[in-house]
């Protein structure tokens, strides 16, 4: 009851933020985007998505200065990287990139880093893939970095049928469904995740039921609109994602993590932010019974 009263009087218990993409090393483009994000009312954090090679010391210092006074999260690179592979060298390369990513997170004082598992080749059984994931996250936690590595959970937009050969899919993004994500959580009880509700909509997955049942394992949420079976990262209100249902559910659960708007275009970000704030305001006015997050016995 106290949590619900706090949310009503002080706003949501969670932080709402938006994404800063870092293409190349164009500091002026970074600055322009940060200036726009800081115009968003009640911006709680900025999540930096880094896909380029790790910036050098000078660029890290410039980024720190640019983001000074703003809470920062980090989304690590994932293109052509995989924690899952039948090749040790592939996993080793990913491990090195992710160690550098955690070091960058510490340099930016980011408490959380979202990482993708990569692709599951048909040569590997899922149990072995989960063993590799568990070993990777254990190794990353053992680096001594302050930032907590999170597993990205959603439905990857890469079409599973785009790499068919010999009558089978050669490699598919993992996890490719919320059921696979649930099995990953069962295998790694210490792991927390970032739930991408937009890709769940695109992949026709029941994100509402998953969020209710796994709330205590969800540290962050990626929010954007999507069409079932179609495009994702759309402006809120342009697809089938219901931000009003999400705001009500987060309030009912007493969610206290991070919600990041992951739209790329400035106009989409501003319009989506306005709609999200409207959804939060309406949720705050409703007398919704607080839901207890599902916890495992013991």
What would you say this structure looks like, in words?
The chain is of the alpha/beta class and 298 residues long. The chain has one domain (2-285): TIM Barrel (Alpha-Beta Barrel), CATH 3.20.20.150. The chain is built from ten helices and twelve strands. It has helices at 2-10, 27-37, 57-66, 88-107, 126-141, 178-187, 197-202, 207-214, 243-253, 266-285, and strands at residues 15-22, 45-50, 72-75, 112-115, 118-121, 148-153, 164-165, 168-169, 171-174, 193-196, 218-223, 258-261. The strands form three sheets. It has an eight-stranded parallel β-barrel, surrounded by four helices. α2 runs parallel beside α3 and α9 (243-253) crosses α10 (266-285). The longest helix has 20 residues, at 88-107. The radius of gyration is 19 Å and the shape is globular.
What's a concise summary of this model?
The chain is of the alpha/beta class and 298 residues long. It has ten helices and twelve strands.
Structural class of the secondary elements?
alpha/beta
Tell me the major beta sheet.
Answer: 8 strands, parallel, barrel
Give the strand order of the largest sheet, numbering strands 1, 2, ... along the chain: 1-2-3-4-6-10-11-12
Supply the number of helical segments. 10
The tally of strands reads 12
Shape: globular
How many separate structural domains? 1
Mean pLDDT: 89
Low-confidence stretches: 1-9, 159-168, 289-298
Name of the top-level CATH class? Alpha Beta
The CATH topology is: TIM Barrel
Portion of residues within helices: 40-55%
Keywords:
globular; 8-stranded parallel beta barrel; alpha/beta; disordered N terminus; 298 residues; disordered C terminus; two-stranded antiparallel ribbon; TIM Barrel
């Amino acid at each position: 009851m106290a949590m619900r009263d706090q949310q009503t009087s002080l706003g949501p218990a969670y932080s709402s933020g938006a994404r800063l993409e870092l293409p190349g090393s164009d500091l002026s483009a970074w600055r322009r985007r940060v200036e726009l994000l800081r115009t968003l009312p009640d911006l709680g954090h900025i999540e930096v998505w880094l896909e380029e090679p790790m910036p050098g010391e000078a660029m890290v210092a410039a980024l720190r200065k640019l983001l000074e006074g703003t809470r920062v999260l980090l989304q690590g690179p994932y293109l052509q990287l995989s924690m899952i592979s039948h090749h040790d060298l592939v996993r080793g390369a990913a491990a090195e990139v992710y160690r550098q990513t955690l070091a960058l997170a510490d340099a930016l004082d980011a408490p959380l880093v979202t990482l993708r598992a990569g692709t599951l080749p048909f040569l590997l059984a899922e149990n072995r893939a989960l063993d590799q994931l568990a070993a990777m996250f254990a190794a990353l936690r053992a680096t001594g970095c302050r930032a907590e590595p999170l597993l990205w959970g959603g439905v990857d937009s890469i079409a599973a049928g785009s790499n068919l050969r010999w009558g089978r899919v050669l490699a598919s993004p993992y996890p490719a469904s919320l059921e696979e994500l649930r099995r990953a959580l069962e295998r790694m009880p210490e792991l927390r995740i970032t739930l991408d509700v937009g890709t769940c909509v695109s992949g026709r997955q029941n994100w509402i039921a998953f969020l209710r049942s796994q709330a205590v394992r969800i540290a962050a949420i990626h929010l954007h609109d999507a069409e079932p079976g179609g495009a994702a990262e759309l402006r809120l209100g342009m697809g089938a994602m219901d931000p009003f249902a999400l705001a009500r559910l987060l309030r009912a659960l007493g969610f206290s993590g991070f919600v990041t708007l992951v739209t790329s275009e400035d106009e989409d970000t501003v319009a989506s932010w306005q709609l999200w704030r409207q959804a939060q305001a309406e949720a705050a006015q409703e007398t919704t019974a607080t839901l207890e997050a599902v916890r495992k016995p013991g």
